[in-house]
Amino acid sequence: MLSRVANSIYWLSRYTERAENVARFIDVNLQMILDLPSGSTEQWAPLVIITGDDAAFAKHFDAASRENVIRFLTFDTNNPNSIASCLRAARENARTIREAISPDMWEQINTCYLMVNAAASDQRIIASPYSFFNEVKRASHLFDGITEATMLHDEGWHFYRMGRLLERADKTSRLLDVKYFILLPSIADVGTPLDDIQWAAVLRSASALEMYRKRHGPIIPDQIIEFLVLASFHVRSTIASPPPTILSMLSPVLPSACTEIRQSSIWASCAQSSPTQTQSKSLPRGCTNFSTRCKRSSILWTMLFSILFSPCAPSGDLRR
Question: Cβ(14)–Cβ(167) under 8 Å?
C-alpha cells in the first residue's frame, strides 16, 4: 500500500470521528442545560476547551456564548476542528483515494458534507440545532457501518480502525480533564445534584450513559472514571485503544513498518507515556495525571505515524 493512501485513509477516519464527536458534545450540552437547576449558568467554554481550540476561539470572539460556540464548532471554516472543516477534509481525503474505498463510502461522505454545507446558510440551525446535530451523528454512524460492510478488510481497513480508535481515546481523556478542572463552579458542589447532572453529561458525551447504568447503576464518580478509562469492553474508553494495541493490530499486515516503528526513538517515548492497568490502580485520585498521559501518548503516536506515512513531516497542529 502506498504511504499516501494509508495516510489518507487514516485521516479520513479521524476527521469523520472528530466531526461526530463535536456534534455529540454540543448536543449533550444542549440537553444538559435543560436539566440544570434554576439559576445555574450555561457553560459553553468547556466545549471549546475539549477540542483544544480555546486560543483560536479567543482571537475571534469576545465571549463563549451559545451562538458563538455553536457557530465556531460547527460552521467556522477558519477553525480546522469544526464539523464543516472536518467533513471537508474527510471528503478531500476520500476523493484522493477513490480506488481504495468503496463507492458507497464515497457517496455517504459526500452526502454528509453537502448536508452540512447546506445547513451553514440556514440561520434557523443556530436557534434550534437539535435535529441538525442528530443528523450529523447518524451520518457518521452510517459511514462507519458502510465502511465495515463494504470496505475490503486489508491494510487500509486496519489504518481506518487505527484512526478511529486514537481519536476516541484522545477525546475521552479530554472529557475527563474538563470535568475535573472546569465544569464545577466550586468544590462545595461535589456530590450535589448539579454534580450528578454533569457526570451524566460526561457519560453521554462518550456514548456511555446506558452502558454504564447497565453495568453499575447509580452515578458514582469513581466508577464512572474507571468505566471511561479502564473498561476494555467500552469502545470509547482510553485503554481500549493504546498505541501498543494498535501496533499489534497492524503487525500482521505491515511487519516491516511495525519493526521500524518499534525501533524509533519516538516509539520509546510513546510506549513510556501509554497508561496501563497497573499504573491506573490509583484512579480516580490520579485521574488528571492519567488523562494527561493518554493525551501525550496520542500526540506522540500521531507524530510517529505522520513521519512514517505522510509525504512530509508534521507541522502545526499535531491533531491535524
Answer: yes
pTM of the model: 0.80
Helix, coil or strand: residue 51: helix
Report how far apart, in Å, the C-alpha atoms of 170 and of each of 105, 154, 292 are: 25, 25, 10
Any idea of the CA torsion for 235, 243, 27, 151, to the nearest 10 degrees? -70
Alpha helices in the chain (DSSP H): 3-35, 45-51, 54-60, 66-74, 83-96, 103-120, 124-127, 130-150, 155-178, 193-205, 209-215, 221-230, 243-250, 255-262, 265-273, 287-309
Please, are residues 47 and 129 in contact by the beta-carbon 8 Å criterion?
no
Rounded mean pLDDT, 255-264: 63
Question: How far is it, in rounded angstroms, from Cα 73 to Cα 69?
Answer: 6
Cell readout for 92 is 478531500
Inter-residue long-range contacts of 1-4, CB under 8 Å, 24+ positions, other chains counted: 1/100, 1/155, 1/156, 3/308, 3/309, 3/310, 3/311, 4/96, 4/97, 4/311
**With helix as H, strand as E and coil as C, how does 292-320 read?**
HHHHHHHHHHHHHHHHHHCCCCCCCCCCC
- Scored b (16 or more CB within 10 A) or e, 69-108 reads bbbbbbbbeebbbbbbbbbbbbbebbeebeebbeebbbeb
Do you know the residue count of the chain?
Answer: 320
pLDDT of residue 170: 83
pLDDT tens, position by position, 149-182:
999 988 888 889 888 888 888 888 888 877 665 5
Question: Which grid coordinates are listed for 231?
Answer: 473498561
175 within 8 A of 206, measured Cβ to Cβ: yes
64 near 44, Cβ under 8 Å?
yes
Half-sphere exposure of 121 (CA within 13 A, CB side): 4
At 86, list the grid cell: 472536518
